[in-house]
């Protein structure tokens, strides 16, 4: 069966608009960088000449700047730095850096071979200014795209195909990460609609089941999808997927195939073809690296620096706690750390002194999921405590736990003993690393997260640890603590 798609889908139109804006931004940045370099080095745009060593031949630096700009933009294009496949991800930035360094490397080699004396001050301005401008411009457009996607725009309608549980998991992944730019418009499962159930609940939305995994082309026509995402299903064997690729090509529809694993970071994946068949190799979990000496050293140095920096804030908070209500300044709560070892986690006291004795009377008002106890309007919290919790200031003394080696700056949420006693075998993997003062749970919703999502994020961190990820989480934490969402 063949269907006719519009010349350009909604996705292709907004991708083309975004690509044009990126091109204009790149041109403006590169021209500005070489122009500024020429002005900063020579004080004028047209008064300097580039000479070849040992000859009287020379050429205006204005022409040199124009050639540099064209070459720079050419390298960016050769690296496909504006490809829709990489825009919005780390790969986009990597390609920009790679193109820039390759271009300047080529200039250095050519100038050496041709004995051309290029002013070092000119290059010393053009390279960092241009590279920083390109990265900043892409970052701003990336933020714009994320805002648009979060508000429902720049979304590619996607049809999810696969077994019921696998399709549900894939659709839920798209729903959780709206910034990725996909909106699920339909599902195709082996059985199709069963027992009159023509919809599947995905993150609170009712997504229609529009067919089976044998009627994908008809489902595309029905839903208007311009992307098909295929996950585990018996019908779509390798030969049928190849036929699907050919069918979708004529429609201008993209195909995504998932290997059926989740929460595996890019650095743990490697694709290696075997007899023409792509094989996805998964490296072992990274939790051993998350307890390495380098992470421990980073934690200690960061915590010491942080304690020095926030000492005035902690002093004010301590005085406020002491004057706000009767009781000690600090609250020491038993938590379970690395390998199940208990320790005393230090916080500024945010509740009244006898709060623990009233917990049993409030259990029936628990708003948390799983073994967590959470309550938005907990009467045990003091007025000062609400302010401290609002900005996570009550957590600052935990840097002392980090210095003592009981916690990390970044890690899974530190659990209570009663929570650990309710853990399943899977959840216990959270204790393979030290609990953290912040983590993926802190930047992804804090107390608003449900239990399953909190566990998923913690396990993802444990198995995919990297120092870069820690730095990103720390950066995002600074923004998360200024927002009231989930802070209770």
TrEMBL record:
It is found in: Membrane. One of its GO terms (molecular function) is transferase activity. Belongs to the bacterial sugar transferase family. The keyword Nucleotide-binding does not apply. Keywords: Membrane, Transferase, Transmembrane, Transmembrane helix. Residues 295-482 form the Bacterial sugar transferase domain. The keyword Transferase applies. The chain crosses the membrane at residues 21-39, 59-76, 96-116, 122-141, 297-321. Coiled coil: none annotated. Its main location: membrane. This is Sugar transferase. It comes from Skermania pinensis. It comes from the Bacteria. It is a multi-pass membrane protein. InterPro entries: Bact_transf, EPS_sugar_tfrase.
């Amino acid at each position: 069966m063949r269907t006719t798609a519009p010349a350009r889908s909604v996705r292709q139109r907004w991708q083309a608009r975004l690509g044009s804006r990126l091109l204009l931004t790149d041109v403006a940045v590169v021209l500005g960088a070489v122009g500024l370099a020429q002005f900063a080095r020579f004080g004028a745009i047209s008064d300097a000449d580039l000479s070849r060593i040992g000859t009287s031949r020379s050429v205006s630096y204005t022409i040199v700047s124009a050639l540099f700009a064209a070459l720079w933009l050419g390298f960016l294009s050769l690296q496909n730095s504006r490809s829709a496949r990489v825009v919005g991800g780390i790969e986009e930035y990597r390609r920009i850096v790679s193109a820039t360094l390759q271009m300047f490397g080529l200039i250095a080699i050519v100038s050496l071979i041709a004995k051309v004396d290029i002013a070092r001050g000119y290059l010393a301005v053009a390279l960092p200014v241009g590279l920083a401008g390109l990265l900043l411009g892409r970052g701003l457009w990336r933020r714009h795209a994320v805002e648009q996607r979060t508000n429902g725009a720049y979304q590619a309608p996607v049809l999810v195909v696969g077994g019921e549980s696998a399709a549900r998991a894939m659709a839920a992944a798209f729903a959780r990460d709206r910034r990725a730019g996909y909106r699920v418009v339909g599902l195709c499962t082996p059985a199709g609609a069963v027992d009159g159930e023509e919809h599947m609940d995905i993150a609170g939305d009712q997504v229609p089941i529009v067919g089976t995994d044998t009627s994908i082309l008809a489902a595309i026509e029905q839903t208007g999808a311009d992307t098909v995402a295929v996950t585990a299903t018996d019908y779509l064997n390798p030969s049928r997927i190849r036929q699907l690729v050919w069918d979708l090509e004529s429609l201008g529809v993209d195909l995504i195939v998932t290997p059926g694993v989740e929460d595996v970071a890019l650095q743990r994946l490697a694709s290696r073809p075997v007899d023409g068949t792509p094989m996805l190799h998964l490296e072992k979990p990274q939790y051993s690296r998350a307890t390495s000496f380098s992470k421990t050293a980073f934690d200690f140095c960061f915590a010491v620096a942080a304690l020095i920096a926030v000492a005035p804030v902690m002093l004010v908070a301590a005085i406020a706690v002491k004057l706000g209500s009767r009781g000690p300044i600090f609250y020491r709560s038993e938590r379970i750390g690395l390998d199940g070892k208990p320790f005393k986690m230090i916080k500024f006291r945010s509740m009244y002194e006898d709060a623990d004795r009233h917990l049993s009377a409030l259990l029936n008002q628990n708003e948390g999921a799983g073994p967590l106890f959470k309550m938005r309007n907990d009467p045990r919290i003091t007025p000062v405590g609400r302010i401290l919790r609002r900005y996570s200031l009550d957590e600052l003394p935990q840097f002392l736990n980090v210095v003592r080696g009981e916690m990390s700056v970044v890690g899974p949420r530190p659990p209570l003993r009663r929570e650990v006693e309710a853990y399943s075998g899977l959840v216990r993997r959270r204790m393979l690393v030290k609990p953290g003062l912040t983590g993926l749970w802190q930047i992804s919703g804090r107390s608003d997260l449900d239990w399953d999502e909190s566990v998923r994020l913690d396990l993802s961190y444990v198995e995919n640890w990297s120092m870069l990820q820690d730095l990103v989480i720390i950066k995002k934490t600074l923004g998360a603590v200024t927002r009231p969402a989930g802070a209770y």
